[in-house]
Design goal:
It is built from 8 helices and 17 strands. It is of the alpha+beta class and about 300 residues long. The chain folds into 2 domains: about 140 residues, FAD/NAD(P)-binding domain (3-Layer(bba) Sandwich), CATH 3.50.50; about 90 residues, 2-Layer Sandwich (D-Amino Acid Oxidase, Chain A, domain 2).
Length: about 300
């Protein structure tokens, strides 16, 4: 089997490592962070990493992803449930217009697992690192190693401390701030064709813990609630262990709403949103995080170089 280096140890890197290890490959994950990984869901929720800003924002895990996880990495799926996540079926939350619709074969697969992104990554890391074919090392990649014979191909990576790591396959899983185009150019290799469009949205997110036995507010979708109002959008996603998150999205040029970074302003905006107000009413929940902000978001498509 092949040896593989994966640059980046967040969700994509971990998931790739798990899939390859389960097929017999030897995988080394290179992670630039020197932080000690969290051990519990509560610790994971407070693990703020500048290189993974999305980790503290709202996430939902769709049916396709949950079914793939159940079928191909059952230990991860079961680990999520053991860590406090919950499985729901969307057919139990039909809108009024579908109340009389008869269930059909396959509806049982319209499942979702409600979990914070941080808890999902915690369990995924634990289960991936339990594979005998996976190791993780600390190192910052600064460039690629290329074969001396034709056709040229990547055979490893160069680290910031001068070390070289060799492998049959190198996977870039460093995310939206990837430097892979400059690495390829510096190595004299064809550079990917990149198409990018700005998402034109800034997110503000805060996490809460329910103080009630049942959801204290309305749900207009099985895993949460959401809507679009004048000047902003808002979504609420249920999470593991009785938690939920609320994210407000605004236009980058709307400078007045930059104040949502302030906890009091964020709370006032949520209380003024009818669909969400009940969730944060006194006695129904308590905040368990500051307000997190994330902007500068692009949707990018990378295509292999032509020719």
């Amino acid at each position: 089997m092949s040896t593989v280096i994966i640059v980046g140890g967040s969700v994509i890197g971990l998931g790739t490592a798990l899939a390859l290890a389960d097929r017999g490959h030897q995988v080394e994950i290179l992670e630039r962070s020197t932080d000690q990984p969290p051990a519990t869901a509560d610790e994971a929720a407070k693990w703020v990493r500048p290189t993974v800003p999305q980790a503290v924002h709202s996430h939902a895990f769709g049916s396709l992803g949950c079914n793939l996880l159940r079928d191909r990495a059952r230990d991860v799926y079961d680990g999520l449930l053991a860590a406090g996540a919950a499985e729901i079926n969307l057919t139990d939350y039909r809108p009024p217009s579908l109340r009389e619709v008869t269930s059909v074969t396959g509806d049982e697969n319209l499942r979702m697992v409600i979990s914070r992104r941080s808890t999902f990554e915690l369990v995924l890391r634990q289960r991936t690192m339990a594979r005998p074919g996976v190791t993780i090392s600390t190192g910052t990649v600064r460039g690629l190693v290329v074969s001396e014979h034709e056709p040229s191909r990547v055979t490893g990576v160069r680290l910031s401390d001068g070390q070289v790591r060799l492998a049959d396959i190198v996977v870039d899983a460093t995310g939206r701030r990837t430097a892979v185009e400059s690495w390829l150019a510096d190595a004299g290799l064809p550079v990917n064709e990149v198409h990018a469009e700005n998402c034109k949205i800034v997110y503000y997110t805060r996490h809460y813990r329910m103080l009630t036995e049942v959801p204290p507010g309305p749900l207009n979708r099985g895993f949460g609630a959401g809507g679009l109002w004048d000047h902003y959008t808002a979504v609420l996603f249920r999470g593991d262990n009785g938690t939920f998150s609320i994210s407000l999205g605004v236009l980058p040029e709307d400078t007045a709403l930059k104040s949502l970074r302030d906890e009091e302003a964020f709370a006032a905006a949520v209380r003024a949103t009818p669909l969400l107000a009940g969730w944060v009413a006194p006695g129904n929940s308590e905040p368990i995080s500051p307000v997190y902000a994330m902007g500068g978001l692009d949707n990018s498509l990378r295509l292999p170089a032509r020719g």
